[in-house]
Write a structure and sequence with these properties.
The structure holds two protein chains of two kinds. Chain A is mostly helical. Chain A contains four helices and no strands. In chain A, helix 1 packs antiparallel against helix 2. Classes of the chains: A mainly alpha, B mainly alpha. At the A-B interface, helix 1, helix 2 and helix 3 of A face helix 2, helix 4 and helix 7 of B.
Chain lengths: 132, 210
């Protein structure tokens, strides 16, 4: 059993804690804490979307920040992806996933916004073709 | 210094280096492999999100998100899925300590909450289609039904998987293979909740902004 602590933990497993320090309730505490944080963040998101107390152009950015925070809460408290030394492989895989997601999302949005701005409307193009 | 500490020191000396310890236990390999699958699933969802974000305003003169989305419904769906994620966590704890009754209870609660989520989502889709907001009406609606529909499909698969696991658990007990699969299921279920966080933010909350 002792050699097992040298392996990375599987995702979703909590890092190996010596049996003497492990309490029966600690797992319950982690999930409950995660649930509370997620509820708070969710309620804040709904409030931000519906309030007029916040400068309107800042609302989408605020919502994105809240969503990323909540995804972080889910990762840490529910999936138990931590920065501990025995979770390195999981974190590296996650980092790669996040990189790809970032490239796909930002890449598509930037390219499509750019095209929207610079391409001629279809009707204008037709006019040009007719004239020449 | 007492004997226990000395024993501990000896044990630490015996720990093998990772390059000499041989292959990792199957439990860890299976979990890591499933984690890679989940990440690839999330990458697929990111493509759906990107297409939705690009097409969100392309309603072709039809109904827009602000007219279609009901925030109370979305809040209820969010609460149901979050609670089912929590009860799934409770189920994992029961599996770790090999308690049958608590595991089945956690599974039943998770299943009911997930099914209630699915029912709300289907009712929402039906309501939209009744208003003429079908997937073929506009690019916005195509992207909406693809994105939210594939999440709903994942939830459906998850529910079927959960039922299957409960059958296996009652037939075979807490065997290593069954515990491994249950562990993968809980990873899957938590990942679905993460995707839902993005859906309710990007689709529903941003969709109703003026």
């Amino acid at each position: 059993m002792t050699t097992e602590t040298h392996w990375d933990v599987a995702p979703g497993e909590r890092p190996a804690i010596p049996a003497s320090e492990r309490k029966a309730s600690s797992g319950l505490l982690v999930y409950t804490l995660g649930l509370l944080l997620a509820v708070i963040l969710t309620i804040t998101s709904f409030w931000v979307a519906n309030t007029s107390a916040i400068w309107a152009p800042g609302v989408p950015a605020g919502l994105v920040v809240l969503a990323i925070a909540q995804m972080g809460v889910h990762l840490v408290f529910f999936l138990h992806i931590t920065t501990g030394p025995d979770s390195t492989n999981n974190v590296l895989a996650l980092a790669f996933g996040v990189l790809i997601v970032f490239l796909v999302l930002v890449g598509s949005l930037v390219i499509m916004a750019n095209l929207n701005e610079n391409m001629m409307a279809h009707t204008e193009l037709m006019d040009l073709q007719v004239r020449h | 210094m007492n004997v226990a500490v000395e024993m501990d020191a000896v044990r630490h000396g015996e720990l093998l280096d990772i390059s000499e310890a041989g292959p990792a236990p199957k439990r860890i390999i299976a979990g890591f492999g499933f984690w890679i699958f989940l990440l690839s699933d999330i990458v697929m969802f990111s493509a759906l999100f990107a297409s939705y974000a690009v097409l969100a305003k392309a309603s072709a003169g039809g109904l827009t998100g602000a007219q279609l989305f009901d925030q109370r419904n979305v809040a209820m769906e969010t609460a149901l899925l979050l609670l089912s994620s929590y009860s799934c966590g409770m189920m994992s704890l029961a599996i770790n300590s090999q308690r049958y009754l608590a595991t089945f209870l956690g599974a039943v609660v998770t299943f009911l909450l997930g099914a209630a989520f699915l029912k709300l989502e289907l009712r929402e889709f039906q309501g939209m289609i009744a208003l003429g907001a079908t997937p073929e009406r506009s690019a916005f609606l195509s992207a909406f039904f693809t994105l939210v529909g594939s999440h709903g499909l994942h939830v459906t698969v998850g529910l079927a998987w959960l039922v299957l696991m409960m059958v296996q658990l009652s037939l075979r007990g807490f065997q290593d293979a069954v515990v491994r699969r249950l562990h993968c299921f809980s990873l899957f279920w938590h990942a679905l909740d993460i995707i839902w966080v993005l859906i309710f933010t990007v689709v529903y909350l941003m969709g109703v902004l003026p």
